[in-house]
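Dimethylhistidine N-methyltransferase, pasting as requested.
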Amino acid sequence: MKTIKSNVHYHVGNEPETDMYSEVLNGLRSEHKTISPKYFYDKKGSELFEAITMLAEYYPTRTELFILNKYRDEMASAIGTDTALVEFGSGSSEKVRTLLEAMPDLKEYVPIDISKDFLYQSARALSIEYPHLHVHAVSADYTEKFELPKLTSSRKAVFFPGSTIGNFEPHERVNFLKMTADFLKPNGGLLIGVDMKKDHAVLNAAYNDSKGITSQFNTNLLNRLNRELLADFNLEHFHHHAFYHAEKGRIEMHLVSLKNQTITIGSEHVTFAEGETIQTENSYKFTIEEFQDIARDCGFTPKKVWVDEKNWFSMHYLMVE
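Structure tokens follow.
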């Protein structure tokens, strides 16, 4: 039997700088309880998010895919040749396939994701579909400095779809974009998806779907804490709540305590009052001008922007010198 040489390689880009136990406890002991949205994405959480992207109410994924399909040749031209394509938060690597179809000469693809099992599974599947492509799967938290494997391309372009940039707080967003600009020097590019401000009813429906998948995604975070941190959250005692905060320009997602209760996490105790919440995610929305101004302040030069016919979603191509 002929042996087929694998074109996918696995790398560890960084190790977490803070341990999950300490970070979660600190967040739950703060005046306004929070847990970082990065902890949504264990294997089950990643699968639930993929299910969310297929929901009728959740417009970002299908709208971004529409833009990608319509303008992929323009995007590929902007990215250019002899470029390694690096994807932050690659997940299933589904969206990048549209871009890869317009880039037949691309030699290197670098998916980066914090969910190691999901990353390796997705990278293997993609490498089979694109046997000419060298796939370097990097397990890392891309919001922190990470090590890349040695690449042969002369420049890098980052693909960052899904409007994940909206999950960063303003100071975190600035730090992340500045770090990305440094990572892309010299002459690199960033193709990034950015959700736009729009009718509040559309926004609220996207995070409160009729099938309850987003609710499952949110409460799965507690399942993960129970499993990995030996916590004893009762999921029936918490309720998913998401809403658009117009003044702050963001969707807020919370888990609401339905009663006075005390939770054990490892050997520690955390008390909840009835109605008290854990804020699990913010998702900021932007106008084109707002986001381009932020990008300029972080060292990028806006080059192109593509939008759908409803002006619900935008994709920006930014460059650094």
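Note for the archive: The chain has a mean pLDDT of 93.
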